[in-house]
Design a protein that fits this description.
Elements lengths: L6 H21 L1 H16 L4 H31 L2 H4 L7
Helix pairs in contact: 1-3, 2-3
């Protein structure tokens, strides 16, 4: 069990993770919509609980692990090849 001195780090880590998930959801509206529907179904008791919990777990995984990686790859692609292909004068 974490000690009291670990609490600020745990809270800040959890907050940073929640912010990252919220930002990623804003970039991926369909996933955000599906998560909202799953959350509503769980709150109202409609449908299959295990299914909607799995939906939220999948959404959380995708938003925290996969989407940031995809956004990083997108930034690399948009940067182009010029920095890689430009010759360095010192290499001459």
């Amino acid at each position: 069990m974490p000690s009291a001195r670990d609490l600020p780090l745990l809270v800040s880590t959890a907050l940073a993770s929640a912010i990252r998930v919220a930002e990623n959801r804003a970039r991926c509206p369909l996933a955000g919509h599906q998560a909202a529907v799953a959350q509503r179904k769980l709150v109202t008791g409609e449908g299959r609980e295990k299914f909607y919990r799995a939906k939220l777990d999948t959404d959380r995984f995708f938003m925290t692990r996969m989407l940031p990686e995809t956004l990083g790859l997108d930034a690399r692609i948009r940067a182009g090849a010029a920095p890689i292909m430009a010759p360095d004068d010192d290499m001459g």
